[in-house]
Amino acid sequence: MLAEQRRLVLWLPVALALGALFYFHLRQEPSVFYACGVPVLMVGAAAILLWWGWQFVWPRVIGAACMAVSIGFLVAWGATHRQPPMPELPRRGVDVTGTVQAILTFAGRDDAAPARVVVLTGARFETPLDAGMLPLRRTLRLKIRADDTTKLALGDEIWSRALFAPPSFPAFPGGRDVQREAWFAGSAGSGRALDRIEVLNTGATSEGRIGSEIERLRERLDIRIRTALPDATGAVASTLLTGEATAIPRIVRQDFAASGLSHLLAVAGLHLGLVMAVLMGTARLGFALWEWAALRWPCKALSAGAALAGGVAYAVLTGLHLPVLRSLVMAAVAVLGIAVGRRVFSMRGLALAATLLVLMQPQDIMGVAFQMSFAAVMALVAGYEVLGARVARFRAAADGPVHTFLYHATVLALTSLLAGLATLPIAMAYFGVVQPFFVLANLVAVPLMAVWIMPLGMAALALMPLHLEVFALRPMGWGISLVVHLASCVAHWPAARLAVSFMPGWGLLSVLLGLCWLCLWRQRWRLWGLMAIGAGMASPFFLTQPDILISPDGGMIAVHTNGHLFVNGHSRDAFSIQPAWEQAFARQAEPFPSGTSTPDGSLSCGEETDPDICIFTKGAHSALLRVRDTSDGTVPLPDDLCDGMDVVISTAPLRESCPKAVRLDRFSAWRNGAQAVFLTSGSKEPNRPKNIQDTVTVITDRALRGERPWVMKPGGHGLPNLPLAPSE
């Protein structure tokens, strides 16, 4: 440990993140005393331990770790309670007024026309209950009708009749928590316009606001870029230069994801680094051509400062997303290192960036952007710490163009390999896929991005005030077309996208901690991290998968048996629930058999009774599934059909049907959200009498997430936004 003492500080952001992670996974929201008092007491005790044992390594390690974990817990609790409560939204069509905060364009499904979505702030509902209410403190997303061509601008106050819905519940217990994401994003829900949009006031409420002006600039740049470059090429170019990624067609996104090039569509460290490299090279060339300045000024440091200023402008223009913020902090540390003559890229710079982001936005540690961004950079820095000397010797031995080309190809392949391997388990956990050809695709796409696409993009931005951007955008589009074609070709190779089933949370945590252990230490014990990474990546293959899934609204049922996933029923959110189920099981959904049974006989529908009633058997256990009920539960199920059933599931209320079985219906889904059913082998205790509850295990979404501020009440209800009391 003494040999690694200079690396101990690198574990500070890891400890902060663990404290925040512990808070976010609590089942019950802690009171103010436990959330603030206990961490403060632990910080005090850790400070005493540090003071007492400053001359010894273990008191310092334990004291600093306890202090960092407590601070991480505290900042996570504070970030949660700084957010406004989730409001109650009207359950029917309502007149709404609000101010346009952003205008988004999404690619249509299956070659449909692009859809426009406006983000409303300060929304008011025009209903008797909401009369006199304060404006919503959260934003609303409103999808505009396809036939509505009303011209909108940022800051416009608009009116429409719309139908809204709160953030959806997870598709299955342990799935993606959209409600937590909406809580920290300041979103109250989304909806669709029922009538045409009417503009009440044009841009009067946001004049002079810097954020609004930047949004207007991004919108104008997006229009000009996509005018010069139509279709997918223009959408990708707009993503690289303005951060507007909503217009990219879905098939292009799928090809980039399958080929391992999806990082090119997310403005992050690669793009910021290329922009700053172009600006720094241009500035250094300009100083070199100015003899007086070259002889008297610190041109390298000034060029780095100019590149950092340009990087800040690019980050603001593209929306200040999390990966860009991380890269921006590291770029600032790099510029400072250039100015004082220290190492430009180091693990300490990454640790500083991670510490600042965890302290400012602790909720981001739960997101894929934070985890993939830091994992990739950490692997790159650690890899070049180990291999840097060999790479430098290889470069020094270059004695011709062939050798120089081999050096650059080797460095590029090594960079893609390190970053790809570090993010591979995270992609498995969040996207359920493995892309085996990501190195080959990046060998071609990244150089094109570095030497052709991004330099021409910067030239296009510089030429826009002169209205000459088309001379740079057209060649830029040629390079983007090559990358799009490359992504399509690689995506259609055999085994280009291997599906992987759901990775549990402990598996992902094992991967991340193992990666930190492997990269942050330098002694031989760093290799122990490979065991943790392997255990995490193998966790999906040892996880017991549920036999039956029920959607959050109780309208859809999925049966998983013998490598097949059968889905039936109807749900408002079926477009997102079914893909989530398919990803979790790594299987394509199939419809329930109609009037027959599956080849293995485990699932049969309508063979003896009602065609909407199915029976699923697993070993000695049976489940009765009522996938459709036009009587809304008023017609009970026959007693002879209920006999011998361990569990009865219905998309409608069961009411008095099958009282002896485990009953799951629309009401239980309304109370508990999505439900997963496991048909177990029964009790292992020999003296315990066997009952139905021993053979059926039901895990619900509400039991897993508990009572937290972002977990909405049954049915998706929030806090009523009541009007102010009348003043006397």
From TrEMBL:
Keywords: Cell membrane, Membrane, Transmembrane, Transmembrane helix. This is Competence protein ComEC. It is a multi-pass membrane protein. Residues 240-524 form the ComEC/Rec2-related protein domain. The lineage of its organism: Bacteria, Pseudomonadati, Pseudomonadota, Alphaproteobacteria, Acetobacterales. The chain crosses the membrane at residues 6-24, 31-54, 60-79, 260-281, 301-320, 327-345, 365-384, 405-431, 437-464, 476-495, 501-520. Residues 709-728 are annotated as: Disordered. It comes from Acetobacter indonesiensis. It comes from the Bacteria.
